Amino acid sequence: MQHTLREHLIDVRGELSEALALRPYAGATIAAYLDGAGLRPRHTWDQTTRQAVQIVTDQAALVDLWLRYRMATLAPWPMRVRRAVLGV
Description:
The chain is mostly helical. 73% of the residues lie in helices and 5% in strands. The protein has four helices and two strands. A two-stranded antiparallel sheet has the order 1-2. A hairpin with a 2-residue loop joins strand 1 (24-25) and strand 2 (28-29). Helix 1 (2-21) packs antiparallel against helix 3. The two termini are 21 Å apart.
């Protein structure tokens, strides 16, 4: 069960990242500004590239915070399932 949940969470992160990358931004897409940015020194990035990188970084942080919150509310769930199965 834990392995399957991990795979689903990875899929959700991937889908959210892809949807964000394809969003219009400054006359192109966010992905267009990220493409190759990691291969160039940061001091060579223009303002739009810096902002695109920040948008992606912020979204990743928000997704992680949301998942941590949701997982905290799910924590009692496996115990409730075990109790239900055992009839306790």
